[in-house]
Design brief:
The chain has 14 helices and 16 strands. By secondary structure, it is of the alpha+beta class. The strands form five sheets. The protein has an eight-stranded antiparallel beta barrel with strand order 7-8-9-10-13-14-15-16. A two-stranded antiparallel sheet has the order 1-2.
Length: about 500
């Protein structure tokens, strides 16, 4: 791409597409937080700030930094208010001192009598205190109190002698060893689960080869102090457990007997969450019954996706045969084996089970569902407001709403204004080898096919990312585009 090109989003300008995408991602997260919380409420603002500090990679752009600064101001607003209104309350005593209330001064004999009582009062109080102290001293030194004191002293001495032994019984090395073994076991299990999820992500979502997916998932484990994902903890001796535990503590992965997740691992887990792969664990059922049940679930899942895709394609006014053809093409790209309408024996199902496990589509006898987030598969997620320009014609504004059930294959959006409706489909069927030359210095990859219906007019071609817009390539023309409209202010 030629040097000097800029990427704009609102009033901010970026030097690279990466910075622009980070800003757009921050805007999406900010919008979600504002819909969920009242950020003007100091308690809610502090709650959001605490979550952001625990995950430093939440925001990566100036938009995110501005939002954090706004939260910090909101979280301290109550203290500022208390400070600004914290003037001392006036009391009758200080009002009198300031001359705002006139005291009722006694006159004549009444005044002299009062002054005499004031002078004599300290003397009387001193006599009473001395008498009371003398009586208390006499009461303290009694035989009963002496015996009680001896018993208390003997008890303290006995406890001081026995306490070390008692504590050693309750908190002995055996108990500490059990805690360390439990912590190390949990640490290793968490790593093994994450490693399996990452393999599925690299193999199934990113599309890497089997060996490359294994290598990348193994590489991710180096973010931890130690990689125990392939270790059998139950066979390790207490000495080995102690050594591992101390290394985890020294490295910071365990603090105060609690796990502290490395920030790089948090970022990886966010990617898994976006791809719909987070917390994919087994149900504990094994054997042939579980295998058949898993394949049956896969058939049902494919069936639902198929009819959802058919309905979405029908909104583009395609014939039934074309809708079915496009839906089957999407399912093949997603699953490899499309089996929802097969009549199969149990042996056939077992064979397909192995195929889906190898592809990462079945894990621990659970089917791994595709994320509902199109950006997890490099498909566009349109903002609620967009502008469409066809072949350099004047841009028209539309509101959008995602209607797709399978955005991993093709994502569909309904388009509408007060007078016009339409529909657009972006397909994830580009082979990443087809390039579109924008100018002498810039070429982009065709991401896949698109279908667009605006009123009675329909358009088709290929779509691509063009700076901060989505370009539409139709019959050799590359000047049509869809522009994002970010109309939120912060």
């Amino acid at each position: 791409m030629a040097e000097g090109k800029k990427f704009k989003l609102g009033d901010l300008e970026f030097d690279s597409e990466q910075e622009y995408r980070e800003a757009a991602g921050d805007l999406k997260r900010i919008k979600s937080l504002m819909a969920k919380y009242d950020i003007s409420d100091p308690s809610q603002a502090r709650r959001i700030l605490a979550s952001i500090k625990a995950h430093p990679q939440t925001f990566r752009s100036p938009y995110g930094k501005k939002f954090v600064e706004k939260l910090e101001r909101a979280s301290g607003s109550m203290d500022a208010l208390a400070f600004s209104t914290g003037a001392a309350r006036k009391t009758p005593s200080n009002e009198a001192a300031q001359g705002t209330v006139a005291p009722n001064e006694p006159r004549g004999k009444e005044k002299r009598t009062k002054e005499k009582r004031v002078r004599e009062k300290p003397v009387k109080e001193k006599r009473v205190r001395e008498k009371t102290a003398k009586e208390n001293k006499l009461r303290i030194f009694t035989l009963r109190n002496f015996i009680i004191g001896v018993i208390v002293i003997v008890g303290i001495v006995a406890f001081s002698l026995a306490a070390p032994k008692l504590f050693s019984l309750n908190n002995g090395s055996d108990n500490n060893d059990d805690i360390k073994r439990t912590m190390v076991t949990a640490y290793a299990k968490g790593q093994a689960d994450l490693k399996a999820q990452l393999y599925t992500y690299y193999f199934n979502v990113v599309g890497e080869a089997e060996e490359e997916a294994k290598k990348d998932s193994q590489e991710a484990m180096k973010k931890y102090v130690l990689d125990l994902s392939d270790r059998t903890i139950s066979t390790m001796t207490d000495t080995e457990i102690k050594d591992v535990y101390e290394k985890l503590v020294d490295g910071g992965d365990i603090q105060n007997n609690s796990f502290v997740e490395p920030s790089a691992i948090t970022v990886l887990k966010e990617k898994l969450q976006a791809a719909g792969l987070a917390n994919q664990t087994g149900n504990g059922v094994e054997g042939e019954t579980a295998i058949i049940a898993a394949v049956n679930s896969m058939m049902d899942y494919q069936h639902r996706l198929y009819y959802s895709l058919c309905r979405s394609y029908s909104m583009l006014n395609f014939k039934a045969d074309d809708c079915e053809a496009y839906a089957n093409e999407d399912l093949t790209s997603l699953f490899g084996d499309v089996i929802y309408d097969f009549q199969m024996s149990e042996e056939d199902k077992k064979a397909y089970y192995e195929s889906f496990v190898k592809k990462g589509l079945i894990k621990d006898n659970h089917i791994v569902r595709f994320s509902t987030d199109p950006t997890a598969y490099n498909l566009p997620e349109l903002t609620p407001a967009i502008e469409i320009s066809i072949k350099n014609a004047a841009a028209k504004a539309y509101h959008t709403s995602m209607i797709s059930y399978a955005p991993a294959a093709s994502v569909f959006y309904e388009l509408y204004t007060s007078k016009e409706k339409g529909c657009i489909c972006f397909r994830n069927n580009g082979d990443k080898s087809r390039y579109i030359q924008l100018d002498a210095d810039t070429s982009v990859t065709a991401q896949g096919d698109f279908f667009l219906l605006l009123g009675d007019e329909s358009y088709t071609g290929e779509w691509f990312y063009n700076k901060q817009d989505i370009g539409l390539f139709m019959d050799g023309d590359k000047d049509s585009k869809i522009s994002y409209v970010h109309d939120l202010t912060y």
